Amino acid sequence: MLALIGISFNLAFSTTMSQPDWALALLLASLLAHRNNWLWVLPCALIHDLILYWSFGTMALVLAIIPLAMIYLDHHLGAGLPQRIVLMLAAIAVLPALGWDIQASLLTLCLCVPVWHLLTRQYAQQAA
Question: Residues near 101 by Cβ (< 8 Å), separated by ≥ 6?
Answer without folding.
Answer: 18
